[in-house]
Design a protein that fits this description.
elongated
C-alpha cells in the first residue's frame, strides 16, 4: 500500500474501531503501522487506557484503480533448498542476538 492508501485506511480504522476495554474510538495518533503488502496492512492500536489491539486490514481494489506496476507484479516462487534451511539453522545455532555485528 502506498502512503495515501495507508492514510485512508487509518482514518477508516479510527472511524470503525474502538478499544475493547473502554470503548473509546482510536485517534490517528493511536495507530502504528506494523507492516504492509500490496493489499493488506497490519496496525497496532494503542489506547490511553493501556489496552493494545492488532488490526489487520485487507483491501479489495477495483481493476481500474490498479496501476500498471501492480498489474505486472509476479510473486517470487523460488523454493527454499535444503542447504538454505541448514545454513539458517547453523547461523541461528551460533547467533548471540547481536544484530549490529550481523550487518557490519
Amino acid at each position: 500500500m502506498n502512503y495515501t492508501d495507508l492514510q485512508v485506511v487509518i482514518k477508516e480504522v479510527c472511524g470503525q474501531s474502538a478499544c475493547s476495554r473502554c470503548k473509546k474510538k482510536y485517534l490517528e495518533s493511536d495507530i502504528n503501522i506494523v507492516g504492509t503488502t500490496k493489499n493488506e496492512a497490519v496496525f497496532m492500536a494503542h489506547c490511553p487506557c493501556g489496552t493494545n489491539a492488532i488490526v489487520n486490514v485487507s483491501v479489495k481494489r477495483k481493476q481500474a484503480n490498479i496501476t500498471p506496476h501492480e498489474r505486472q507484479w509476479d510473486p517470487i516462487n523460488n523454493k527454499i533448498t535444503l542447504n538454505e534451511v541448514l545454513d539458517m539453522h547453523n547461523f541461528l545455532t551460533n547467533f548471540d542476538g547481536d544484530l549490529q555485528n550481523v550487518f557490519k
